[in-house]
Request: fold
Amino acid sequence: MMRFGTALTVTVTGSSHGPSVGAVVEGIPAGTPIRVEEVQQALDRRSPVGRSLATKRQEPDRLVVQSGIRDGKATGDAIVALVENQDVRRGPYEELVDVPRPGHADFPARMRWGSARDLSGGGIFSGRMTIGLVIAGALVQGLLEPKGIDTVAFTRSIGPVDVADAALDLPLQELRRISRGNEVGAPEDTAAERMRGAIEEARRNGDSLGGVIEARVEGLPPGVGEPFFDSVESVLSHAYFSIPAVKGVEFGAGFRAARMRGSEHNDPFVLKEGVVRTRSNHSGGILGGLTTGMPVVARLAVKPTSSIAQEQDSVSLSRKEPVRLMVKGRHDPCIVPRAVPVVENFTAFVVADLLTRGRFL
Amino acid sequence: MMRFGTALTVTVTGSSHGPSVGAVVEGIPAGTPIRVEEVQQALDRRSPVGRSLATKRQEPDRLVVQSGIRDGKATGDAIVALVENQDVRRGPYEELVDVPRPGHADFPARMRWGSARDLSGGGIFSGRMTIGLVIAGALVQGLLEPKGIDTVAFTRSIGPVDVADAALDLPLQELRRISRGNEVGAPEDTAAERMRGAIEEARRNGDSLGGVIEARVEGLPPGVGEPFFDSVESVLSHAYFSIPAVKGVEFGAGFRAARMRGSEHNDPFVLKEGVVRTRSNHSGGILGGLTTGMPVVARLAVKPTSSIAQEQDSVSLSRKEPVRLMVKGRHDPCIVPRAVPVVENFTAFVVADLLTRGRFL
Amino acid sequence: MMRFGTALTVTVTGSSHGPSVGAVVEGIPAGTPIRVEEVQQALDRRSPVGRSLATKRQEPDRLVVQSGIRDGKATGDAIVALVENQDVRRGPYEELVDVPRPGHADFPARMRWGSARDLSGGGIFSGRMTIGLVIAGALVQGLLEPKGIDTVAFTRSIGPVDVADAALDLPLQELRRISRGNEVGAPEDTAAERMRGAIEEARRNGDSLGGVIEARVEGLPPGVGEPFFDSVESVLSHAYFSIPAVKGVEFGAGFRAARMRGSEHNDPFVLKEGVVRTRSNHSGGILGGLTTGMPVVARLAVKPTSSIAQEQDSVSLSRKEPVRLMVKGRHDPCIVPRAVPVVENFTAFVVADLLTRGRFL
Amino acid sequence: MMRFGTALTVTVTGSSHGPSVGAVVEGIPAGTPIRVEEVQQALDRRSPVGRSLATKRQEPDRLVVQSGIRDGKATGDAIVALVENQDVRRGPYEELVDVPRPGHADFPARMRWGSARDLSGGGIFSGRMTIGLVIAGALVQGLLEPKGIDTVAFTRSIGPVDVADAALDLPLQELRRISRGNEVGAPEDTAAERMRGAIEEARRNGDSLGGVIEARVEGLPPGVGEPFFDSVESVLSHAYFSIPAVKGVEFGAGFRAARMRGSEHNDPFVLKEGVVRTRSNHSGGILGGLTTGMPVVARLAVKPTSSIAQEQDSVSLSRKEPVRLMVKGRHDPCIVPRAVPVVENFTAFVVADLLTRGRFL
Reply:
């Protein structure tokens, strides 16, 4: 099963080199407004088309809705939506069956399924599967907007380049506007330019970079999240680690919290215009797994792209001997910028699911 | 529902100041050997009894099995196991209903459930609920041992004090032996002594400390994990963020990976005695969400204990006015040492669930 | 997993000859009123104690609540409730391991689990497991009563003896009052007396009888039920076929509907005091899987008790040869009367689950 | 959620008057052989095209597979398969919004969703949704065939006409061959001809008929089924009551068992060529909810088609007044023949799910 969610669920469908990739989304109430063109725009932001830093596999991802939406509204039935795979070149991947690529799922997938599962183009491990996550998140915007709930994701760092602290204090709308205005998805143009340079340098060296993405959700009421096992942190991290290449997730002060004292870390409660808020937000808007009403803040560590244009050590599984491997194919030297809309949209999906479960919607 | 797992499930039961806390564990096959005394030993390692650094709430946690085990074996039915709450003092907590404690779940829980849910002693947000996690993990050891699968957790850092890098290269058995030999759960006695000093100093100052816990699993075959949404990382992080005070989770190089180059981060495949291994283990034993056969390595950031013996800013929810709050009650100045056995056992439970789902068991 | 339900779940725990049998019930909202003494009364109605027609295994089923209820209200946590097994005699059952009893689960259970699963006293196939169903249903009454939803079950027939048609038109309260007033659970005393005679005759002959139980639910709003797979009929029948010995389930006209014409079967819509009702109720209060607001009516066929005091043909599984088997042990010659409170309570549980899922509660 | 199953799941998608209807099927292992042309043939058997007794809505149901099958094998990913709706005429249904049709879901659906859910053509309550069930069952044949498991369904009765008892003793292959050879799906040509006459007479009178369908599964090993709540009977009946118009389900002797004595109903165990069988099969191949290795036998009561060409009493929901309603549209005077392939295929799906859960596959 490749399915996620409880009150709302998404099943990602297809695979990299099959006829299509997409999503089946269930649980959106009949009558929920859905603007299909905005789902398309979300897909366009994930698309490599027109990005100078991205993979050369360039195909417009045209959304096709098979069922579940009519006259701009959810019918209440399963929404089946997909994007056809066009630019499929089977050649480059087929030789990888015997010699697994370092950093890729090739080896464990082969151990699990033998040759029963087609992994050309990465198969279900391809970043292309995240199209389903973008669709799922874009479909639930009609549930969140009327409640004033807004989600943003942006690039915090790429390789050694960090966004300046000052930029992090911008209002959510500004963070989104600036991040969407540059190719790396950073909320600060100077850093964005340096990140771009770092990626280009990595590419020239046949190498790759990782980075950190930050997600924020504003407008959530206090008390969202399910007690104990389905805390906001548990459910969001479960979702985030589904995104290929994510190797760390933290909330609020996160790993920094481990070095703080309680007197420093605790966020004091204060009243702001009659509303209970906290002065700082080290908790990332989550206490006891439930939202506090402060912005939810998460950060995701993204590893550098595994496919690099350098010879690497691997082994032949059949011949049981070492092999020097040169990975071919078309790859992003840094997937962080394209992962930003995935994180933003999938965060929205998780939040909508938690709100529905908790009957806030 | 306070339930976790798929092929194996655990429901945590009871609450801090109710008659008992415990677990209902389902899915363990009939005939699986279960040594009840080892479950008790696991609980004893979590217990504050005899720990100089721990809360003064000191009660022996005596395991009672209501059903599901007979003659040292699982019957195949639900295992109902619990520990009675003995040392319950209701006084200190009752005044907190109106003035939420900074860093605690009081505020969002009150917003969610009003007064319908009893939160004295932390209720379901109490660290005492982790007794159910320890029980669950200890119960599945009879599934893991015959396969040679071994799990350990230990303290990596407390406040500013880190374990020396050299200690991290010790074999798993040694890591466990040394960690169990000192009160802070660290695999290095010198660091353990400094950690102990740091905790005592924090306590003297009416303050608290956090830290980092590392978990490792050895002996897993390659290919464990479910594709896409139920990757090993997704499921483990979901579990880990259920443990109160955890604010970050990373695997392998984790957040460091975000600053590495692909050529540096990729783990080259090599043959060791005919078995495919990786030279380094930056992936933390997980590629594409599936195990590689290398040790699974996870780290958890634990925030400093929220209850500190200092006046803090809060608000009266009824009177809508600021209040200076002094938290009373009995608390650990650092919960990291007692969280170590929770992480170790719950890791084992998650691994057993994934192995069962994937039919490795 | 021995668990049922969606928004509310019940896990039946224990087994016939283990230390206890009971239920873990999850999902009842914090604050729901629960009268433990009424749960006990429901158990008493299922109990053989004081029934002249029942098994000689006679033990008072004393309810023990381990967690989840406090001060007459649900805490919102899992409710762990059980009854200790007292009158356990292991002897009679142990010889059945090799020679399966006709009509019992012995044979397929042995094929499935070998000797890993303890089936003495019927194990999990014992009618005693239905204690968990009674508990589950009795616990949710505090959700149904404030909505005016009332559930009843009664005996429609035992062996060849049917309740007179006139009795079926009685109001629900009367059906319940009369049925609880005689030992066979029938809503008509004349029939009840004849049923009693039939059971006694069967017992004298070392034989057993089956019968039909009818369940009714009144007060449900129209529209309850989940579309397509989780229709009211689907979910109720799923529940009913869990009750040992049930071999048929029908709603409204049921199997009679198969011989009716549409013009006869369709229930015309009419207005009664401004409310939409149907003139007849051939649909059993369910159209398209959703409630119509008319009484929900279900009937369950219960087979005759399998354990009879006559020699029967069986085989020795080890020796692969025919055996004449005389079943020993203590058995009801007709379990219909004791199944009535099980059906009544478990119907209430299913209805409460559907109402919660559909947000009618 | 319109989803069913555990180890294998099916989500039915689309609706009667949307662009398509179909199924998303998950859990079929990578490499399972799937003959798409046989799925098409199963759909053709459900289709009204070429049936003189069926609805005049006549459209060829052309299967389109969007993902999950490649080169005649399951890829292991979700199978998205659908059939486009071609012959959609919106007119006849739109006036029904205010005046519910007797025997239809119109009224409760309107109470549940108001006008948010489009019910033209029956919407999700249309018999057309069973296309998804046929697809699901046809897709799993590649799991059952290698194990020698065979499923058949046939018409037992239509209106007052029953199949002769002798026909019921035919081998499964013969039952299938004869049933597929006549338009009503009966395993006896004489009865088939009389059934055909009864249906034509009902149609001439503007009326409709119901009937009984029997399903059989042969080749199942003993022990299939999950203990207590997910017995074979529970899961099959859950599935069967999803099929529109089913109002009763029984196994083996079913409702007849309620009038039998234990000495008569119990199936004696015997050895046949070294294999344990039962002499009779009153249990319908199921004891304690588990298969015995004997044929599984189920019967479903199907009510007469609700849409009849006669004026009926209904009410105007808006004006709160009685209305005489004449239902227009295109309808089958008896849906039993077309429900037969639905029952046959969906039985296969349920069986494959239970086998997978129990690790028989």
User: Anything to note?
Assistant: The two ends of chain B are 27 Å apart (CA to CA). The first helix of chain B runs from residue 36 to 46. Residues 3-357 of chain B form a domain with the Chorismate synthase, AroC fold fold (CATH 3.60.150.10).
